[in-house]
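Record now logged for everyone:
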Amino acid sequence: MFQPLSSAAIFSALAAAIALLALPLAGAGGYVLHVMILVMIFSVFAVAYNLVTGYLGLKTFGHHAFFGLGAYGSALISMHGGISPWLSIWLGAGVAAAFGIFVGLPVLRIKSMPHVAIVTLAFAEIVRIACSNLKGVTRGELGLWGIPTFGGFDLPGLGKVVFNAANKTGYYYLAAGLLALALVATAVILRSKVGLAIFAIRDGEDAAESLGVNLTRIKLFVFGYSAFVVGAAGGFYAHYVGILTPSAAIGADVMIMVIAMTLVGGLGSFTGPLIGALLLTSLGESLRFLDQYRLLVYGAMIVMCVMFAPRGLASLGELLRRPRKSTAA
């Protein structure tokens, strides 16, 4: 069951939130804010992926398709429909959720994890190839550019909030808001009756089914919700970076990076994806000169974590305290 946070964990979370909100006020440069915005975008992605894989136990390898569908969906709706990005990111997330339910409806009825993994991976590849070849719509690998940015607004007492490349403060706080929303919504689900069903399915599908849990309905709900959240992250990403290519938004390396974030941080841990996203996004930015060879670093980190901290970096505190308890005993 999803345990309530301890006093120490609540204090740590509040301290981290205050530090996060104070970063722009402390004079952090544009590049630091850019990296932190990417950290928060991929934290949202990893939190939603962790709900499906870590908590529910579904082995899916195609969630980057929902990221791309949300990104392209929001960008195209905004560009051709004249709709503000404030609304289009939710419409793009809805597109991703609709495709998630469309894919999940047949495959989640079966209990074979290899089938789920292969179908979701194949679906993501189909989406990537479609986006690459529909050049009249997406411009393929040439890149979909001219994506509208979020409109500014006046905040009483603080002045005008703007969203542009020169001033990333607005994007920063918007990404923080999106991450907070994803965390709160996920925590509410895990603390609800649906959360109990999720843990029951992960621990034993047959036992859960014998207790009256509708496996397909719960799996489909979680899968659709996760696709929606990942799609929203993709929509925000599109309006932030301003240009999309299939390889950047739906490439396999995006999924590998998120899997690495979740495993290194802690699969099935609430804070693990956040730790993994912070570590690997920062590391990825510092290792850009390695290009695709960065994936080797991600792979090495996964191997190291599996060997020395199988439950991820989020469990390091518990591992460090364990010898003291043994000594005290």
